[in-house]
Amino acid sequence: MLIAGFPAGSFQTNCYVVAPAAGEECVIVDPGQNAVDDLDDVLREHRLKPVAVLVTHGHIDHMWSVAPVCGARDVPAWIHPEDRELLSDPAKGLSLATRQQLFGGLTFTEPDDVRELADGEVLRLAGMELTVDHTPGHTRGSVTFRLPRTEEIPDVMFSGDLLFAGSIGRTDLPGGDYPTILRSLATKCLPLPEDTVVLPGHGPQTTIGRERATNPYLAEAAPYAGPTRGL
């Protein structure tokens, strides 16, 4: 398994490239601001051919380069339907102050081929199987992607802005909701094996075991795993 990542743009959003091995097909996760040049370097270095772009959620720092990457490589973009409108109008996911700061003259469009993700769906792409988990709370359409363990690596989760090392995604932007993100953490993260590698949208990688032991938000989320919380 080959997983290469780099922080893109002023937001330092982690963009990941995932393939069974060098010289094969790959998928790209969250190509953010100014990601194109670094992404091209990774693809060239490992001789990879992209077949899809996967978007954990529609915030601008995660989808800034989706359309140009898809257009240049003629590949589809996958996003949850609750966040699809942000591909062409990312301002809807931001505060008013941030909109005014970022969007002077900027325009965004959907890629030509957009496909919608569903909770529990298994994507069979580039010779790999990635499980989609709908994890609302940061945005309504936030998702994570999981790779099953192999002889080489444990389970891997691309967590977007659901879970970080020592923290979680913010919930104060349009579409965010704190009790909802706690429910997502409780139902989609806490049940995973301790050695699951978490590759987040920002910052360093971590593991579910480390976060279960040290992340205060996961401790707060634990009661939300029950079926009667009404979320």
From TrEMBL:
PANTHER family: HYDROXYACYLGLUTATHIONE HYDROLASE GLOC
UniProt KW keywords: Hydrolase, Metal-binding, Zinc
Domain Metallo-beta-lactamase: 12-202
UniProt keyword Cytoplasm present: no
Family matches, as SUPFAM superfamilies: Metallo-hydrolase/oxidoreductase (SSF56281)
Cofactors demanded by this protein: Zn(2+)
Record has Zinc as a keyword: yes
InterPro entries found in the cross-reference section: MBL_Glyoxalase_II, Metallo-B-lactamas, RibonucZ/Hydroxyglut_hydro
A Pfam family assignment: Lactamase_B
Designated name of the protein: Hydrolase
Listed CDD domains: metallo-hydrolase-like_MBL-fold
Superkingdom of source: Bacteria
A GO MF label: metal ion binding
